[in-house]
Amino acid sequence: MVMAEPRRPPALLPRGLGPVRVGFYDIEGTLGKGNFAVVKLARHRITRSEVAIKIIDKSQLDAVNLEKIYREVQIMKMLDHPHIIKLYQVMETKSMLYLVTEFAKNGEIFDYLASHGRLSEAEARRKFWQILSAVEYCHGRKIVHRDLKAENLLLDNNMNIKIADFGFGNFYKSGEPLTTWCGSPPYAAPEVFEGQQYEGPQLDIWSMGVVLYVLVCGALPFDGPTLPILRQRVLEGRFRI
């Protein structure tokens, strides 16, 4: 359930005056950083539940990227699925945006594979079913993710999949192709490398195929030292087994 935005801006207390706080959440650590945003681990002061808070400095964003952020929020508000990270609350000031989301305690499946190696076929099948279920749910609501990759597949306390990061997400209509080049090159479909228009769901389906290979084999099917070499291998369908 998405909570309504508060009427007053969130309180972000400076260090030295007690715990750093955003609204009703005490900040406990940093989960990740980007150019214009930082993701913090936080705990609700009353329920003591853990959450992740994405803190975005709107003053550093141009109009195009600001529009992407608001579209990401719009998409996440529409989604309620057991294998998609939930958006709990949105708080906003003149210069900052705070997205309070579900916290996936076991991190990225990318890191899990790097530490433990490839999954068994049975475990890969179970996790891929969870991914497929979530993506089918999105497509049923005319939403495409467009950046499905191991780094955006998180694991919760029970090692279940949680799809995250809808920063490249968009709405689509059947018969109206999309054109934006986005996503991660090793997971990108041939039509993206060729600069063609594409149907949104088909892009996600290709990326899911790459994800399945990564889960089972513990490595990327298409790789290369440079982007042109990677592009050539994808277009020719040359992958390692």
UniProtKB/TrEMBL annotation:
Record's GO cellular component terms: cytoplasm
Sorted UniProt keywords: ATP-binding, Kinase, Nucleotide-binding, Serine/threonine-protein kinase, Transferase
InterPro entries: Kinase-like_dom_sf, Prot_kinase_dom, Protein_kinase_ATP_BS, Ser/Thr_kinase_AS
Top-level taxonomic group: Eukaryota
EC number of the protein: 2.7.11.1
Pfam family, one: Pkinase
Enzyme class label: transferase
Annotated ATP binding sites: 54
An example Gene Ontology biological process: intracellular signal transduction
Catalytic reactions on record: L-threonyl-[protein] + ATP = O-phospho-L-threonyl-[protein] + ADP + H(+); L-seryl-[protein] + ATP = O-phospho-L-seryl-[protein] + ADP + H(+)
Positions of the Protein kinase domain: 25-241
GO molecular function, one term: ATP binding
Family: Belongs to the protein kinase superfamily.
Name the record gives this protein: non-specific serine/threonine protein kinase
Organism from which the protein derives: Taeniopygia guttata (Zebra finch)
Species lineage: Eukaryota, Metazoa, Chordata, Craniata, Vertebrata
